[in-house]
Design brief:
Keywords: Cytochrome c-type biogenesis, Disulfide bond, Redox-active center. The chain is an alpha/beta fold. Helix content is about 40%, strand content about 25%.
């Protein structure tokens, strides 16, 4: 995953490597103005609980320019996922190869992007959860 300049919800600068935390992660790139992004956010919240025993994090990277809208959205819908905001949305989207939203990246513990999914998805669906787990073979084998 490329080094990105991120901003935490409280306004502090965050390095993308620190945000990932050295663990495998599902990273959803989204925006409050993106209707499919808003629709899938609750299922990403449920996915986080389902993947926690596997040691896989679910993170959300907002490409909004209005940080207050991000905070208001998360409060309104009770989203507790770790969320950061891209310091430069256009640079982040270019660096990550994002051409449309939502886009979700599968990132290994080493920070390598293992794959991606473009478009809205029900992330808590059983078949989807199996698919996501299959993207992280090291995490799945640790659970056994």
């Amino acid at each position: 995953m490329p080094a990105l300049s991120l901003i935490s919800l409280d306004g502090a600068a965050v390095r993308s490597q620190d945000w990932l935390g050295g663990r495998p992660a599902v990273v959803n790139i989204w925006a409050t103005w993106c209707a499919p992004c808003r629709t899938e956010m609750p299922s990403l919240q449920r996915l986080e609980a389902l993947l926690a025993p596997d040691g896989i994090r679910v993170l959300a990277l907002s490409v909004d320019t209005d940080h207050n809208l991000v905070r208001e959205f998360l409060l309104k819908y009770g989203i507790k996922l770790p969320v950061s905001i891209a310091g430069s949305p256009s640079q982040a989207m270019t660096a990550l190869g994002v051409v449309a939203l939502p886009q979700t990246l599968y990132v290994g513990a080493d920070g390598r992007i293992l794959g991606s999914h473009l478009g809205q998805r029900d992330w808590a669906d059983a078949a989807t959860v199996r698919d996501v787990r299959s993207r992280f073979p090291a995490a799945a084998s640790r659970k056994r």
